[in-house]
Amino acid sequence: MRYAVIAASVRKERMSRLIADWATEAVPMQMAEVDLIDLAECELPDDGLLQPGGGRRSSIADRLAAADGFVVVTPEYNHSYPASLKRAIDWHYTEWMFKAATFLSYGVQGGLLATEHLRRVFAELNVVTTRRVVGLSAPWNDLDRDRYAPDQGIRDAVGAALEELAWWAETLRSARRDRPFGR
Fold this sequence. Notes:
alpha/beta
């Protein structure tokens, strides 16, 4: 199995990469290969070139296509998710389809409004989102020498979300292989 952990924020002062680094380590390595995609390090083509169903190949298209599941680490900005993540979603279409995703959202109140907006967007792309998601309230309070270091309750919650993600990702991988859906 292969997972992509996506750090969604591109702001200079951000938690997204620290949490994504931690999440990458949280995926049991015996279960999967993990690819960390930091949107702050990715260039997408100009939006004027975007067409229905995506657009020309981006620098991350093959990495998204190779993933069986996604762990999206996103802040909540103005009760939603950042434009950088929306662009990454919109520039890709088939790369997301019939796969699974879970969310690690964060913000003062845990970022769960960002998660709820993402569920609707991913449903349109035929992505199954896990019921178990994790909202991190003020994760900047859990820094230890510039590393994210959550308490055991958060680690357990993320473990449960990753377990559910693994089940869905494996189930959908088998379905894509054995019974492809006619698009």
